[in-house]
Amino acid sequence: MLRVAMLSGWHVHARGYANQLKNMPDVEITAVWDEDSQRGKSWADELGADFEPELDALLQRDDVDGVVVTAPTNMHRDIMVAAAGAGKHIFTEKVMALTVQESNDIAEAVKKSDVKFCICFPHRIEPANLFAKTAIDNGLLGDVTLLRVRNAHDGASANWLPEYFYDPIQCGGGAMMDLGAHPMYLCRWLLGEPKCISAMFNSFTAKPVEDNAVAVIEFKNKALAVAETGFVSSHSPFSLEVYGTAGSLLIGGVDGKVHLHSDMTSVDMKGWLVPDNLPERLPHPIEQWVNGILHGAPIYFGIEEGIQLTELMQAAYISYKEGRKVEFPII
């Protein structure tokens, strides 16, 4: 049995993670901590768990084996360093932390305590995106020249996101820091090590943070990537496009399908194809975390991946704020 504490109901995904855990037979939610005591007490009652007003006290509990971190992003470093120091396994909402230094502090604490760590990268479990990775790695598209990933919704323009999601202190940014994490980690996973990045953000709704954002990344293999995101796009389906010297791959869009045109396919498979042999979906990240702790199963998104995402994010915000291209590594 894995006994889990929920650390804050701040993030919009917090309740979703709790519901997933409640539906797992070998998991029990035993405690809740929240920087907002009223919210935390209410949520603990809903979950049938104890509310602990002090984080240190919660981390000393014998009936807590692991924690789910869905607190404000600017609190991630201190929470996770403390959790690792107390020997608790960690599952965290993206991003890992606001700076590479903070992420490195977390990494050091996790490695020192030898606890399991998983960051939530849900788009990396999807069959279509796994197919893209295989197609690129196997040279089905030749040398990749351009990758475009778009992930956007209308949370700001339709006014359904919580107001604190526009707090530049708690969040460290806006649409790019939150929803833009998905295009960013997909670009890093698919194309490898980045060389430099340029970012352009604005606030269409006049929020304190950006709600409309684009980052252009050059990778060491000379491929370019465009990561698009926003809180001001209605009916904007996820899309991933890969273009190479020997083919093109289009994923998502209006029909949500995978479309491939490759010079590397056999003669009887020319033109645009809709592959039907996609890889099997991986377990959800929180399932990976639980199974990694209880059964030693693989956790595909860990410390290294978390740091890589933070590095892209920190560089993108430097680029936007200073109006310049930023080279990697940034520190």
From TrEMBL:
Question: Domain of life, per the record?
Answer: Bacteria
Organism of this sequence: Mahella australiensis (strain DSM 15567 / CIP 107919 / 50-1 BON)
Alphabetically, the GO molecular function entries are: nucleotide binding; oxidoreductase activity
Keywords from UniProt, A to Z, are: Oxidoreductase
Q: Do you know which Gene3D superfamilies this protein is assigned to?
A: Dihydrodipicolinate Reductase, domain 2 (3.30.360.10), NAD(P)-binding Rossmann-like Domain (3.40.50.720)
Please state every residue range assigned to the domain named Gfo/Idh/MocA-like oxidoreductase N-terminal.
15-117
Q: What is this protein called?
A: Oxidoreductase domain protein
Iron-sulfur among the record's keywords? no
Record flagged with keyword Oxidoreductase = yes
- Which InterPro entries does this one have? Gfo/Idh/MocA-like_OxRdtase_N, Gfo/Idh/MocA_oxidrdct_glycsds, GFO_IDH_MocA-like_dom, NAD(P)-bd_dom_sf
Q: Name one Pfam family in it.
A: GFO_IDH_MocA
Domain GFO/IDH/MocA-like oxidoreductase, by residue range, is 132-249
